[in-house]
Amino acid sequence: MDLTHRVNPNSYLTTTSAKMALAMENVLKPKFAPNGEYNEDKVKMIIRLQVQPWHAASTFTHEAALAVARVSPESFWPFSLAVSWPKEAVKD
Q: Which end of the chain is more exposed for a tag (fewer CB within 10 A), N or C?
C-alpha cells in the first residue's frame, strides 16, 4: 500500500502553507514518531515548494531553503518551520 502524500503546492509566503506546515509538525509528526500510532517506515511526505516570482522575498526564501537542504538535509524541516511564521512580517 502506498501511503505517500504530496503537499502541493507549498510556498513559504502563504498563510495556508504555513498552517499546513504547522499541522504536519503538530498533528502528523507525533503520530509517526517511534511511540506514535503509525509505523514511520510506511509513510513518506513529499513537499513541493512553489516559488512566487512576483514576490522577491519568495525567491530568496526558497533559494535559502534549497541551500539548507543541500548543506544540512536534517535542518531543512526546522528551517521551513522557522520561516513559515510570522506572516505579518512578510511584505515586499
A: N
